[in-house]
Write a structure and sequence with these properties.
Layout (H helix, E strand, L loop, with lengths): L1 H19 L5 H13 L17 H4 L39 H11 L7 H8 L3 E6 L19 H13 L2 E4 L4 H8 L5 E4 L4 E4 L21 H7 L1 E4 L6 H15 L6 E4 L4 E4 L5 H16 L4 E6 L2 E6 L5 H11 L8 E7 L4 H11 L3 E5 L10 E3 L2 H26 L3
Helix pairs in contact: 1-2, 6-13, 7-8, 9-10, 11-12
The protein binds the ligand O=P(O)(O)OC[C@H]1O[C@H](O[C@H]2O[C@H](CO)[C@@H](O)[C@H](O)[C@H]2O)[C@H](O)[C@@H](O)[C@@H]1O.
């Protein structure tokens, strides 16, 4: 028993160290939690209670700007950034609670989409499922270097399979070019820059049609996708010159801060601080805010260890989801079931839209309890993979049984 407690203590210490180094391995935490739970050891009783994330609504006050009111539904944190964000993706400046017990009650409220799969599909019978997928933290694991957030071949094959059966869209904060380079699939819709850059596959995907109608090819170069796809909607086009200026200015102003990465996401700019030393965060935040202040038509939002400069237009991932449903001919349809899987705050806008439609499945990817508008949960990208494979298998099976039925078997 003593050995076990010592092991759990060591394991928990490792988790905490990982947090301090701005990393979080959800699977590892899960294992620690399992070891502790199996042996009836509460992490808190070890004096190392893990911490949970808290509602962003409680933490970030909406900005009141003198000139332009931020109309974007994403939270605007231009003048009121949260205090120290250096607790990795756990956002651990919140009340300390025991993760094992809180996770259980959270999952009771946001049931596993894998465990609930049969029930979900029962409701989906006769309805048209449209699949929306976030990229980072959903299709690819969160890693230090955003350029290395690659999607596995298995995941690509699963998305390819899903897209054979359902209209499928990737909605991401990344630039459209970057995400097409990562995903490399030709028959999905891509909505980059948090939905501000929407592109359709060469042949519009007809909803509800059989799998073989959607030919999915893995392409070698994003160029091939860019040229074969059609740009549908770019609501922030007029901001492009200003965004380029902001990008350059951010690069210049932050070049002396070690670990900062400025990512050009076309219609928005990401300032990554995952590898910035904690003591440098304050100055980074100040510099970023001073740049944004010069551009009253822009505001700041936050994601996982990232600050994002976005044009203040009323457009977010939720709007992109509605736009795509509309494009697919489902704007007022009562028999469409949008299914959205995402892990970050910007995905909440899409979850909210699905909830307000009163139809569909908002699914959050998280291995820790989080305040969310999602109804279901998956722990990590590996569970997303299982879910997607199962979804494709389910549809395939229903096609085969329908075919058998049609032939009188
Ligand atoms: O909407 P998403 O597809 O989830 O994109 C949101 C941001 O994701 C990326 O940053 C996040 O993932 C990185 C790689 O794992 C990680 O290093 C970073 O800390 C995360 O915030 C992307 O680089 C951003 O541009 C996206 O806005």
């Amino acid at each position: 028993m003593m050995k076990l407690i010592a092991h759990a203590r060591r394991s928990t210490q490792r988790v905490l160290m990982q947090q301090q180094h701005h990393h979080l391995d959800g699977r590892f935490i899960k294992n620690v939690r399992l070891v502790a739970r199996r042996n009836k050891i509460s992490l808190r009783s070890l004096g190392m209670g893990l911490q949970r994330s808290v509602s962003y609504k409680q933490r970030v006050q909406p900005i009141q700007r003198s000139t332009t009111k931020a109309e974007n539904k994403g939270r605007d944190v231009s003048t009121n950034l949260r205090t120290p964000p250096f607790q990795s993706d756990l956002n651990t400046n919140d009340p300390v609670i025991s993760l094992d017990s809180s996770y259980n009650s959270w999952v009771a409220e946001h049931p596993s989409a894998l465990d609930s799969f049969d029930r979900m599909m029962k409701t989906a019978k006769g309805k048209r499922i449209v699949v929306f997928l976030d990229y980072d933290g959903t299709l690819s694991p969160i890693v230090d270097n955003p350029d290395r957030a690659l999607m596995s071949d298995e995941m690509r094959a699963a998305v390819r399979e899903v897209a054979k059966y359902f209209p499928t869209a990737i909605i991401t904060g990344r630039s459209r070019d970057k995400v097409t380079e990562f995903v490399k699939l030709s028959n999905v819709y891509y909505a980059g820059s948090h939905g501000m850059d929407i592109m359709a596959p060469p042949r519009p995907v007809k909803s509800g049609t059989a799998g073989n109608d959607h030919q999915t090819i893995a392409l070698d170069h994003r160029k091939e996708i860019s040229t074969s796809h059609e740009v549908l909607f770019q609501p922030a086009k007029k901001f492009l010159p200003a965004i380029q200026e902001i990008f350059t200015m951010l690069e210049e102003k932050t070049e002396k801060i070690q670990g900062v990465r400025i990512e050009d996401n076309s219609f928005c700019v990401s300032v990554h601080f995952r590898q910035v030393r904690e003591e440098d965060y304050g100055i980074l935040e100040e510099k970023v805010k001073s740049v944004v202040k010069k551009y009253p038509e822009f505001h700041l939002t936050e994601g996982k260890m990232v600050l994002e400069v976005r044009p203040s237009i009323e457009w977010n991932k939720g709007h992109a989801l509605e736009y795509l449903l509309d494009t697919l001919g489902f704007s007022n349809s009562s028999d469409v079931l949008p299914l959205y899987i995402g892990d970050d705050r910007s995905d909440e806008d899409a979850f909210k839209v699905i909830r307000s439609r009163g139809q569909g499945y908002p699914i959050i990817v998280s291995s820790i309890p989080k305040d969310t508008n999602a109804l279901y949960s998956l722990q990590d990208p590996s569970e997303v993979l299982s879910f997607l494979l199962r979804l494709a298998r389910w549809k395939k099976a229903s096609f085969s049984s329908r075919t058998l039925h049609e032939y009188g078997f």
